């Protein structure tokens, strides 16, 4: 197993990025989060604060702390970042090397439109499934399963 050297970057601090940042902090690492939205830092810190009690119950690594988070508003958009990542060849070089595998993944997808009808079906499916279940009890059961899995897999 390799050890992590230096901070972990989280690019984008929406639902997935915020969860990744919180979990990484709980594992005792420094996190540098990047997001172009000027209001993202406040939302990210609030999401981490909200998740911290559950992460604490699951067990924190040594040095785990939300204070190990630093936040930077991204100065460049994704296309400019891709251009810079291509070195002297710029975006053309990036697309030459990363374009074909990205296209393969896109070819596997079929177009999906989030129509009002599809949104209604998604909401109805989620609403119908746990209709007779106590939401806090479901959350507690999930947390217990995570604790059990963590103990079984000896996750950090």
Automatic annotation (TrEMBL):
Q: Where is the composition biased (Basic and acidic residues)?
A: 141-156
Source organism superkingdom = Bacteria
The record's section on SUPFAM superfamilies has: NAD(P)-binding Rossmann-fold domains (SSF51735)
Annotated region (Disordered), positions in chain? 127-156
Q: Which InterPro entries match?
A: 3-OHacyl-CoA_DH_NAD-bd, NAD(P)-bd_dom_sf
Which intervals hold domain 3-hydroxyacyl-CoA dehydrogenase NAD binding? Answer: 8-65
Protein's name in the database = 3-hydroxyacyl-CoA dehydrogenase NAD-binding domain-containing protein
Organism, as annotated: Streptomyces kebangsaanensis
